[in-house]
Amino acid sequence: MSTGVLAFASLVLMLFLLGIRVPIGVAMGAVAFGGFWYIGNINIALAVVRDTPFSFAASWDLSAIPMFLLMGSIASNAGIASGLFRAARAWFGGLPGGLAVATNWACAGFGAASGSSIAAAAVVARIAVPEMLKAKYDKGLATGVCASGGTLDALIPPSITFVIYGIFAEVSVAQLLLAGVMPGILTAVVYMIMIIGRCWWNPKLAPPIVYEDRAALWRERWSSLTEIWPISVLILGVIGGLYTGTVTPTEGGATGALLAIVIGLVQRRLSWQGFVDAVKDAIGTTSQLLFVGVGAIMYTKFLALAGIGPVLVEMVGSWSIDPLHLVIAASIVYLVLGTFMDPLGMILLTIPVFIPMFQALHMDLVWFGVIVVKYIGISLLTPPVGFNIYVVASATNNEIPLKTIYRGCYWFLGAEVVIMILLIAFPEISLWLPRSIWR
User: Fold this and answer.
1) Which residue, among 217, 260, 238, 231, has the nearest Cα to 75 in the 3D structure?
2) Tens of pLDDT along 77-119?
3) Is the separation of the CB atoms in 287 and 62 below 8 Å?
4) Which of 38, 86, 204, 391 has the most CB atoms around it within 10 Å of its CB?
5) What is the pLDDT of residues 23-49, one digit of tens each?
6) 21's torsion region: left (phi>0), alpha (psi -120 to 50) or beta?
7) Domain ranges of the chain
8) Would you list the DSSP string of 330-397?
9) Is 147 helix (H, G, I), strand (E, B) or coil?
10) What are phi and psi of 61, to 5 degrees?
11) Which of 374, 345, 372 is nearest to 15 (CA)?
12) How many whole angstroms separate alpha carbon 246 and alpha carbon 270?
């Protein structure tokens, strides 16, 4: 069996295992184990199984991930997300689709306290969807904005995805984290414009909220600002520390986790049980990422040995002469992989192939990291996997059909087309902030 055929057969087998609901880490690890056994022998396969977990877990840079996860879990248990939503509702509620706009910006704000898109979608959905349904909002819009807004957390630092990309692409994690700020804001603005435009054109999607007492409304707006100071403290501690070079990404994650604990205690919203639950959540998610990461690295090693690199290079080789053509080819690959593959697996599978090509054309790998993270965010909304779709469905007790949530996300995917065109056409959107520091 030729190496290309072997790599393709392994992909088909992995898709079959995913189709019968085998966990993705197990599926990737099992296929890789069988592949190493087929190419070499059982001793080689066992050696890979023995060495990979240690080499993956021993990476110091990965220690930023549990810190960011702990920060997000504590922020969630301390009620920071609910305060953000109340403030956003007070300021944006009067716009067409105001509650959906408020949810969008609450997701963006919560991105400064959480590095996980899935966690953000779950937390905000539990808070915002009941409010929107009570206001007679369209179910697709109400759930779609939570699933789509959750992807903002992958861009706005702290971002676990940027940490993983930076480690394996050997790019500065600090520069990547700062490079996600402006694209994250751009995404939130484009989402907002789309929501307002849709709801202005079709008011039935989101019945307008009428405020009879304008003076009371402004009092509520000003008082709501007192509920968003925790996010300002976290931004100052994490993003400000990265911007000034005071902290490394790992130290920034630890600082953010400590600040989240202090804020929860000061506000008297973080109980001992809430702290324990936050730690358990962070440990559980870190373990899942570790498990998936080990399986993904094993599978990536197998694909490299099986010759998938030359196959992909040959597929996009004729496109790799022109930078724009290479970006288009990479976009197609990520869109296809995103329909069935875990985000971590996507990064580990494609980085060894695309990074050398982008380096050969002297293209900025920080900018490419933003593009990759954006496509990973899009993959969280696309069928048949669409992790954020299932997360929102679970957060709403599966009372809203999956097809309704997917339908609500289609408009946000349309907005992503505009966003991706802007990010590809104008790299300075991503690079201005990190270049203003590292000249």
Assistant:
1) 260
2) 777 777 777 788 788 877 888 889 988 988 888 777 776 777 7
3) no
4) 391
5) 777 887 888 888 888 888 888 888 888
6) left
7) 3-437
8) HHHHHHHHTTTS-HHHHHHHHHHHHHHHHHHTT--HHHHHHHHHHHHHHHTTSTTT-HHHHHHHHHTT
9) helix
10) -60, -30
11) 345
12) 28
Given a contact cutoff of 8 angstroms between Cβ atoms, the answer to whether 430 and 182 are in contact is: yes
- Name the helix (H) or strand (E) containing 100: helix 98-110
Nearest to 24 by CA among 349, 307, 273: 349
Residue pLDDT, tens place only, 135-185: 888 999 999 999 998 888 888 887 888 888 888 788 888 889 889 999 999
Cis peptide before 401 (omega within 30 of 0): no
Digit-coded pLDDT (tens) for 182-198: 999 999 999 999 999 99
pLDDT at 308: 63
Structure token digits, residue 269: 């919203």
Query: Which is higher by pLDDT, 289 or 66?
Result: 66
Short-list 365, 428, 392, 370, CA closest to 155: 370
Residue 318 pLDDT > 60 = no
Give the pair of three-digit tokens for residue 370. 């933003």
Q: Which tens digit of pLDDT belongs to each residue from 400-431?
A: 888 888 898 999 999 999 999 999 999 999 99
Using CA atoms of 437, 228, 254, 148 in order, give the dihedral in degrees to the nearest 10: -80
Tally the residues of the chain: 439
Beta strands in 102-212 (DSSP E): none
Omega before 207 cis (within 30°)? no
Nearest residue to 234 (alpha-carbon basis) of 258, 267, 269 = 258
- C-alpha to C-alpha distance for 182 and 235, rounded to whole angstroms: 14
Token pair for 420: 């991706």
